[in-house]
Amino acid sequence: MSGARRPRVAVVVFPGSNCDRDAMAAVEVAGGEAAPVWHASHDLGGCAAVILPGGFSYGDYLRAGAMAAHSPVMQAVRRHAADGGAVLGICNGFQILLEVGLLPGAMLMNRTLRFICREVFLRVERTDVPMLRHLRKGKVLRLPIAHKEGNWFAEPEVVDWLESQGAVALRYCDEDGRPGEGVNPNGALNDVAGLVNADGNVLGMMPHPERRVGSLLGGSDGLAIIRGLVEVA
Amino acid sequence: MLVEVRVQLKKEVLDPQGEAIRRVLTGLGFAEVSRVRVGKLMLLEVEGGDAESVRARVEAAARDLLSNPVIEDFEVRVP
Fold first, then answer.
1. Do A66 and B16 touch (CB under 8 A)?
2. pLDDT tens across the length of chain B (79 residues)
3. What domain count does chain A have?
4. CB distance A132 to A99 below 8 Å
5. Touching check for A64 and chain B: CB below 8 Å?
6. Residues in chain A closer than 8 A to B65 (CB atoms)
7. Which domains are assigned to chain B?
8. What separation in angstroms does the CA of A145 have from each of A17, A126, A191, B14?
């Protein structure tokens, strides 16, 4: 353990979060110091980056992420994002980012109506944003998903506009990086697995990078993303 | 007063749940059912106020929390 200060990353804990401990462990693996921040908090404890982890915040009552979007800590997350601070929303965290409007669109129930828990392949579409800068454009990642509401939707003209802006950061594909029928697990429009905002500091993704940060966990394809986040903290 | 808020997926949004129900209904012999859309009905007990102000408040609540305008429409019914 060196004496150097490690970058501090806030991991927001909502009632019903269940990937918060995994996210904190992943931050530590990536060289950061993880600080849990309770949903009722009005600030992020001075952290320069934040993770909204997966789970079932507020029991997913009403709509996934809808109640969490109105919790006190999300005001702090909004201010943090507006100031250019890094925000990574994973799974339920992505759903929350959509509900607060930090990212566009909404999640519908999976096309199959089932909770899907398995590994998927995704293609990296953007590498010019901090959280994805350790990846190569077109690289195929293998990461697990575990959700029932990952069927991303937006109006057709909104989808076209987002594509023209390069907002789709991660896209479901096959193991060779090809999109198409059969590789999209949930019905998300344009195979959207992850979106990034215009300033590049807010990333939402349905797959779980924090579950793949070492060989004991079945792979380390998620580590580069967590490392990208820790390094801007 | 008891106020109803009905939240429905927008017409252009696919409703796989409604479609699954329709298929089972067809299997049960209700072949005349050509479409099913599943929504939510919320009943809000609201204290005080006249019908118009209650409607305005509940519509604001529906916009802020009870519905997601990206995928859903809502309708408020005040007695």
1. no
2. 999 999 999 999 989 899 999 999 999 999 999 999 999 999 999 998 899 999 999 999 999 999 999 999 999 999 9
3. 1
4. no
5. no
6. 62, 66-67, 70
7. 2-77 (3.30.1280.10)
8. 16, 20, 14, 22
In contact, A23 and A11? CB cutoff 8 Å? yes
CB-based contact A103:A206 (threshold 8 Å): no
Yes or no: say if A111 and A152 are a contact pair by the CB < 8 Å rule.
no
Q: Is the residue at A3 inside a domain?
A: no
The CATH code of the domain that includes A24 is 3.40.50.880
B13 touches chain A (CB under 8 A): yes
| pLDDT tens for each residue of A73-114 | 999 999 999 999 999 999 999 999 999 999 999 999 999 999
User: ipTM exceeding 0.90?
Assistant: no
Query: Could you tell me the residue range of the domain that residue A16 belongs to?
Result: 8-232
